[in-house]
Amino acid sequence: MNLRRHMPTVYRALALLAFVVTWTYNGRYILGGGGLGPAEFFGAAFANDLTQAITLDVYLAALVFSIWVVRESRRGVAVRWPWLHVAICFGIGLAIALPLYLAAREDLRRDISPTSEL
Predict the structure, then answer these.
(1) What contacts 24+ positions apart, CB below 8 Å, involve 41-50?
(2) What residues contact 72, with CB distance under 8 A and at least 6 apart?
(3) Given 5, 34, 63, 99, which residue has the most CB atoms within 10 angstroms?
(4) Residues 75-91: pLDDT tens digits?
(5) pTM of the full predicted structure?
């Protein structure tokens, strides 16, 4: 079995799983009276040392991911709509944006050459 051929599907399935899992909790937060305004949202995200560590970890990883996406687009790895992946990262979630980007990257690799490595 050629796993490489199936990787875009695997990545998209992981993005869907990440969306369902993370937004289940986001929905609970919102339905429980939590707000998405910056003061309320970041107040909850930085409520204690543990949530602060997790929040900073995810946002720093999101920053690294964003730099990588932009640098790749500038060096000619022309994944369609690179800024859309950055927007998804900060607007919806890194766990969704990263596998979607990897799926698009695999699609690009396959379109360029079945044996290329990006």
Answers:
(1) none
(2) 79, 82, 105
(3) 99
(4) 887 788 899 999 999 99
(5) 0.86
